[in-house]
Design goal:
Elements lengths: L1 H32 L15 H30 L2 H46 L17 H52 L1
Keywords: Membrane, Transmembrane, Transmembrane helix
């Protein structure tokens, strides 16, 4: 009974991953064709190499998650321990790559913050208005606080997604063990009937 419940939960979890990957793909396509305003940068956002790399990374991630979810769904529906083992291996690789990429992003955040501040200071230097304590123009406020807030939200979402994937990994490992025992028992039973 527990194995059946875990099978249903794992199937539902992979269905959620499928929906998530489709939403990520739509967001990436929308971001490619409709980039946001540059705000502090003199060049459009779409001309920045980092923006293009981020959008392409989002597209590739959505396709990888879709493929992984499809493999997970098919391995559960086929009740194949081999395909489920392959799914677990790929899920481990994906979790590892997300941890490495997150560490890389955190390590480079200071460089990104410095670039944002230098662009903002250039814009203030060229501005025709004066920023004082009483000035509440949007142009006079540092964009770094908004950037840090967005980074914090992204980090929280990535942490939740990582925890979700670890839960999916544990459930899949348990169900794979159940399938392996079932296949082993069927093979032993088949050998016993062949000997008789």
């Amino acid at each position: 009974m527990l194995a059946y419940v875990i099978k249903i939960i794992t199937l539902a979890g992979n269905a959620f991953l499928t929906l998530l990957s489709i939403v990520m793909f739509i967001v990436a396509v929308f971001a490619w064709f409709e980039p946001p305003d540059a705000q502090i940068s003199p060049n459009p956002i779409s001309e920045h190499r980092q923006y293009s790399v981020a959008v392409i990374f989002l597209l590739l991630t959505s396709v990888c998650i879709l493929g992984l979810a499809a493999l997970g769904i098919s391995s559960i529906l086929l009740s194949s321990s081999f395909f489920l083992s392959l799914y677990i291996l790929i899920l481990l690789v994906q979790i590892s790559s997300q941890v490495v990429l997150s560490a890389f992003a955190i390590a480079n955040s200071d460089k990104i913050h410095a670039t944002i501040l230098s662009e903002w200071k250039k814009k203030l230097k060229d501005a025709t208005f004066e920023c004082t304590i009483s000035n509440v123009f949007e142009e006079c406020q540092s964009p770094l606080s908004a950037q840090i807030r967005v980074e914090r939200i992204i980090f929280i979402l990535l942490s939740i997604f990582l925890a979700y994937q670890v839960i999916m990994l544990c459930l899949s490992c348990y169900y794979c063990e159940v399938l392996t025992k079932k296949e082993r028992n069927e093979a032993i039973e088949k050998d016993n009937t062949n000997e008789d």
